[in-house]
Specification:
Elements lengths: L14 H19 L23 E8 L5 E7 L6 E4 L2 E4 L1 E4 L2 E3 L11 E3 L2 E7 L6 E3 L2 E3 L8 E5 L6 E2 L4 E2 L10 H10 L4 E4 L26 H9 L3 H4 L4 E3 L11 H8 L16 H4 L5 E6 L2 E5 L15 H16 L5 E5 L8 E2 L6 E2 L3 H10 L9 E6 L5 E6 L5 E5 L26 E7 L3 E8 L2 E8 L4 E8 L2 E6 L1
Parallel strand pairs: 11-14, 14-15, 17-18, 18-21, 21-23
Antiparallel strand pairs: 1-2, 2-8, 3-4, 3-9, 5-8, 6-7, 9-10, 11-25, 12-13, 16-17, 19-20, 22-23, 22-24, 25-26, 26-27, 27-28
The site of fe (ii) ion has 5 residues, from loops.
């Protein structure tokens, strides 16, 4: 059976397009499930670089990993991996993981098996590669020089029965990630960093709820397509991505898809999240670095399994995070400036029930970090910390010896409110962390980090790509001002 599907993304996403994208998604997923193998995606050449369309390929993107190694990834409904052309030399991409329906994760009373009816293919991009393509799909090789980084986090459409939280996935104003991706792509980044919580559709949309009607749910490919591969398409095609794992990608939740599609290391059954008995391996990943300038490197830390209360020495989190934090101490020595990336804020505030109050940073991580790096929580040499998890933008610097912190969790998933500004007197995100400057913004948007005059400058943008805050980063101090 063959089917043709048209999906036209316009230059300005609006509600009509959102519904159109949803319909396209449903057609895509429905045809995948029914064994149809041929799709035709028609996308405006002004927006994307696929033109004309390529058969069978559903997504093509580049994942950055340890030491700046780049892995090209292709998701296809074909039975074989395609050929990749790298600087004029063709080779077959290798199978990363075969299509499969895998063990149910999540709450057995309300979950289901996860179907992945796509073949995941990969190929290493050698350092210095100038061009890579699969058919007529151009892949984004790592840039020799990085001028602009896009920062996003917390992007999927929340559907979670346990919290009675159902975002209007069919309304681009209520779930604006597609527009965020398009606006961010238009800024021509050299690298995109997603700081975790990509997958959100864990429960079925309740009957009669038109806001999320017809949405896929669960941990299979259809939800990954709906939450990431379709809405993020312009941005996936704009630059390589560095993925930082969030709690939504832990093994008990969407970890199976995380390892199939996004983890930068090789896929293995032992770390696939398919067997809960192996979660202690799958839930913790070694930290790694990616250089973004001669004097600046990123340290990527997997905090997906972080708890909420301080650890004791018997806790698995304690046993895993302590040696990994010691590894971070060794990694910082290879960078003049180090930016630490993990999902859960350690030195930033979360929203409290009372509008004039705040909650502190993650106590579980603080407990082990204070053990390894007393008081500062991070080793000397970490100048900046980038987080997600809290669904807003937040920037802090400290008069105490703590690294500046930025939270970019406002890129699409359900808005959860705002933080008081000014902060309550004496509020500290961690004991002894004395806030000197604090900025926050609760509306949806994204951030960029630009290399300017040998330093870095951060900008917070609204959904449509209008600059709202500009933040200088001088001598380790992030200070934001309204534009
Ligand atoms: Fe989170």
């Amino acid at each position: 059976m063959q089917k043709k599907m048209k999906w036209v993304m316009r230059s300005t996403v609006n509600r009509t397009v959102s519904i159109g994208a949803t319909v396209a998604l449903l057609a895509l997923v429905s045809s995948l499930m029914s064994g149809c193998v041929q799709q035709t995606l028609q996308v405006s050449p002004a927006t994307l670089s696929i033109h004309p369309p390529v058969e069978n390929i559903h997504s093509a993107y580049v994942v950055m990993g340890e030491g700046g190694k780049a892995s090209a990834r292709v998701l296809t409904s074909a039975v074989q991996c395609p050929v990749i052309d790298i600087d004029g030399t063709s080779q077959a991409m290798r199978v990363r993981v075969l299509p499969a329906t895998v063990a149910m994760r999540g709450d057995p009373a309300s979950s289901k098996e996860a179907a992945f009816p796509v073949l995941t293919c990969e190929a290493n991009l050698p350092a210095g590669a100038a061009r890579a393509s699969v058919g007529n799909i151009k892949l984004q090789v790592p840039r020799a020089v990085i001028h602009r980084i896009v920062l996003i986090a917390d992007t999927g459409c929340r559907m979670k029965a346990a919290d009675n939280a159902f975002q209007d996935c069919n309304d681009v104003e209520k779930w604006p990630f597609a527009q965020v991706a398009q606006s961010a792509a238009a800024l021509k980044p050299d690298l995109v960093i997603h700081i975790g919580d990509i997958h959100y559709r864990e429960s079925p949309c309740p009957p009669g709820n038109q806001g999320c009607a017809h949405s896929p749910w669960g941990y299979g490919y259809d939800t990954w397509a709906a939450d990431l591969f379709i809405p993020a398409r312009p941005l996936l095609m704009a630059a390589p991505w560095l993925f930082v794992r969030g709690n939504h990608e832990s093994c008990a939740r969407a970890g199976q898809g995380w390892f199939r599609f996004l983890d930068s290391n090789s896929w293995s059954e032992a770390r696939s999240c398919n067997n809960p008995k192996l979660d202690t391996e799958g839930d913790f990943s070694d930290p790694f670095t990616v250089s973004v300038a001669a004097d600046t490197q990123l340290i990527v830390f997997d905090s997906s399994k972080a708890g909420s209360k301080g650890y004791s020495a018997r806790d698995e989190g304690y046993k895993k995070y302590v040696p990994q934090l010691l590894q971070v101490g060794a990694l910082v020595k290879s960078g003049q400036h180090n930016f630490f990336l993990n999902h859960h804020p350690v030195l930033a505030f979360a929203i409290a029930k009372e509008a004039d109050q705040v909650k502190s940073g993650n106590e579980a991580l603080q407990s082990v970090m204070n053990l390894v790096y007393p008081k500062r929580l991070f080793p000397e040499g970490v100048d900046l910390v980038l987080n997600g998890h809290v669904h807003l933008f937040e920037s802090l610097n400290f008069s105490s010896n703590h690294p500046s912190t930025v939270v970019v969790g406002n890129a699409g998933s359900g808005n959860e409110g705002s933080l008081p500004q000014p902060l309550p007197a004496g509020a500290q995100p961690a004991p002894g962390a004395v806030v000197e400057n604090f900025s926050t913004r609760s509306e949806y948007g994204f951030a960029t980090f630009d290399r300017v005059d040998g330093g870095w400058e951060l900008t917070e943008w609204d959904v449509m790509g209008k600059a709202i805050l500009r933040c200088s980063f001088q001598a380790g101090k992030m200070v934001c001002q309204k534009i």
